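This section describes the prediction task in plain terms. A model, or a person checking by hand, is given the sequence of a single protein chain and must write out its three-dimensional structure as a string of tokens. No templates, partner chains or ligands are provided. The sample shown here is typical of the held-out split.
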Amino acid sequence: MDGGAFGAGKAGGAFDPHAFIRQPHTLLRLLSWVFSIVVFGSIVNEGYVNRLDETEEHCIFNRNHNACNYGITVGVLAFLSCLLYLALDAYFPQISSVKDRKKAVLSDIGVSAFWAFLWFVGFCFLTNQWHASKEEDNPMNEGGDAARAAITFSFFSIFTWDYMDPSQDSGMPYAPYTNEEDATDAVGTYQQPPPADAFDTETQGYQTQNY
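The expected answer:
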């Protein structure tokens, strides 16, 4: 390809890992990856407690296992999605087909919106169940920090999954998409400015009136 398309320039260029890591788009992806680990890790490690007179452990979020399962499931799947799209981001400059690049960008937009929605639901769900939790169900206040960490990083994940156009990243060696046909049409329909003597002709034809 001669021109840039959908956030990338010429295909086949050498991959620069240092430039790739410094891109804001990549940093947001890495933050999303870390946040997902914090969420599901906190719930798996300290998200289940039991009363003194019980042996079975229950979810720390109002003893609602659906809340813990939701946090773990979304966290693990978001973790895997981040790895997948980090690999796609690294491979993206090598894609020579405009159609394939368009599919990759549209997929990224859709997945980002989807995960931002899931994290919003998770934040609301976990917050509601945490506030509904009864003190007698956890008299030792175990896992409180882990529960708050899961809620907090669920909230942060809403914003880190917002889609960012890679072509807007500062210092990114990719050019924004340009349609060559549109550029040709624009050149073909360009009109030259009128000659300078046209204004003189109009001036000569104008006669002042005396009052």
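For orientation: The radius of gyration is 29 Å.
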